[in-house]
Design a protein that fits this description.
The protein has about 230 residues and is α/β, with parallel strands linked by helices. The chain is built from 7 helices and 8 strands; from the N terminus they run ααβββαβαβαββαβα. The protein has a 5-stranded parallel β-sheet, sandwiched between helices. Strands 1-2-3 form a 3-stranded mixed β-sheet. The longest helix is centred in the middle third of the chain and has 16 residues. The termini are far apart. Bound molecules: S-adenosyl-L-homocysteine (SAH). The site of S-adenosyl-L-homocysteine (SAH) has 21 residues, from α3, α4 and β5.
Length: about 230
């Protein structure tokens, strides 16, 4: 069983390279004692540079910043969002691209399913504000709030989901899964600032966590909710 799991892991790591992210190293295999496991993951959570200047720095690691670095100090605890997951990485790359387009500075921002808060905090560090976050999981809200404080930014995080009686927002992040994106499509559309009809005039939604075979379904749901895919 272990050997099958190793082979499967190796194959999936290979698939990850298709995301066009940084090179992924060789799979390393060793046995660990059960009692070491709870904290063992910390050893495998390195400082990570994503996109060009976003750096995720686990709180227990040292890092010498380069001049343009945007450093997200992170302890995800039990919440999802270490930056190791490809969907989180894709969102951070997207966030940085938005920052390069100049649409993050001063942008009201909403993170649906904030997990560790990595995206909300990243956006705030890049100048977004006010930043609002919700997650159905109370552990995530705790983690988002702690990570915001740790980075000296303000993220208003509360337990919950869509619809939200606030906004609309300039930028919305939703790193969920296809089925939930479809279910929340109308709420997401309502949370995004409407445009004046000209291309790119409205707010933006960055949706992630969509397996390729589910993409058409998500596109249909978003179109039905009045959104247009810009990228
Ligand atoms: N934004 C983080 C975490 C993404 S994981 C990142 O990009 O790394 C997805 C998160 O969404 C989880 O924390 C989960 O608890 C939360 N979630 C799942 N369904 C949700 C829903 N319907 N509404 C709000 N949050 C939800």
């Amino acid at each position: 069983a272990a050997e099958r799991a190793i082979a499967a892991s190796r194959e999936r790591l290979g698939h990850l390279t298709a995301f066009d992210l940084r090179p992924i190293g060789q799979l390393q295999v060793r046995e660990v004692h059960e009692e070491d496991w709870a904290s063992a993951w910390k050893e495998h959570f390195p400082v990570m540079r994503l996109g060009g200047r976003i750096v995720i720095k686990p709180t227990w690691r040292d890092y010498d910043p380069a001049p343009d670095d945007v450093i997200i100090a992170l302890d995800p605890g039990m919440a999802f969002g270490t930056g190791l997951h490809p969907t989180t990485r894709l969102c951070l790359v997207g966030l940085e691209r938005w920052a390069d387009e100049g649409i993050v500075q001063g942008a009201s921002t909403f993170d649906v399913g904030s997990g560790s808060g990595v995206l909300a905090v990243g956006a705030a560090l890049l100048g977004a504000g006010p930043v609002r976050a919700v997650d159905t999981d109370p552990i995530a809200i705790e983690s988002t709030t702690e990570n915001a404080a740790r980075n000296g930014v303000v993220v208003a995080a509360t337990q919950g989901s869509l619809p939200i009686d606030e906004g609309p927002f300039d930028l919305v992040f939703a790193n969920l899964v296809a089925s939930i994106l479809v279910e929340l499509a109308a709420g997401l559309a309502a949370a995004v600032r409407p445009g004046d009809g000209s291309p790119g005039s409205g707010g933006r939604l960055l949706a992630s966590g969509i397996f390729i075979d589910r993409e058409p379904e998500v596109r249909r749901a978003f179109a039905a909710a009045g959104m247009r895919v810009v990228r």
